[in-house]
Amino acid sequence: MADSFLKRMEKLEAAEDFFRLLEIPFDMKVLRVYRLHILQRFHDYIAAGTMDLKSKTEEQLKQYYGSLLAKAYEDFIHSTAQEEKVFKVFKEQEQPAAPSKGVQFVSLDSLIGSSKLKRKTV
User: Fold this and answer.
1) Cα distance between residue 65 and residue 12, in whole Å
2) How far apart are CA 95 and CA 122, in angstroms?
3) Side-chain half-sphere exposure of 10, counting CA atoms within 13 A
């Protein structure tokens, strides 16, 4: 029984299909904007899960996956993609770029001498 449910989930393609199968209400306006973010967060929640899925019934799996999808959806109702940082591009925006090895700051005055940088007064 549970295997057939998991196979049905594997065949789903659109975000709407997941919401319908798991019977999670959604606002199409939110889904249009955040569909990829929601699905990625849903995937992240599944990957972090520790539930033994093999021993569960179809209804238990539906409730479990439904709660994860609802949680992912809620993340984007109360927040934005930039705040949630699901994708790498948003994670990198907050982190300063690491300095390259072997690159060092060299001041101009150390190259030509500080006395040559001073303006000559006439």
Assistant:
1) 13
2) 49
3) 6
What number of other Cβ atoms are within 10 A of residue 37's Cβ? 21
Provide the residue count of the chain.
Answer: 122
Of the candidates 89, 67, 77, the one whose C-alpha atom is nearest the C-alpha of residue 33 is 77
Amino acid identity for residue 45 in this structure:
Y
pTM: predicted TM-score of the whole model, two decimal places: 0.66
20-57: per-residue pLDDT in tens?
999 999 999 999 988 988 998 899 999 998 778 778 89
38: left (phi over 0), alpha (psi -120 to 50) or beta: alpha
